[in-house]
Amino acid sequence: MHRNNKTKCLTISIRTIMKRYNLSKIMKEAHQIKKYMKLYSLTHGVKTWADCLKLAWANEKKCVSDEEAINAEKEAMKAALAQPAKRSSYDDLSIPQSAYYNPYSYGRFGAHYVGD
Hints:
Blueprint: H1 2-20, H2 23-35, H3 37-43, H4 49-82
Helix pairs in contact: 2-4
């Protein structure tokens, strides 16, 4: 009975990892690192397949965390933009049109010239 519970928990944790990370992409990146191992051994100290996988996982985790930060920032901006801005007394819309235009300020096709 204990073994069954551990298997169930392990299956659930693997599913959550697979939803969050693209395992195919990680393996492809690890194979690319392995392909160019001489270059990576000079820059990152990669010497074995395990080092290739570690580096690929580190890159993917960094990409996911950066993407989550960007998404959180976008959500915060959307929330801030969703709230209407408060109008000041200068934006009072109850002022009559005669306060801005004199009776002789009509232009071509009825346009108003304000004098700015």
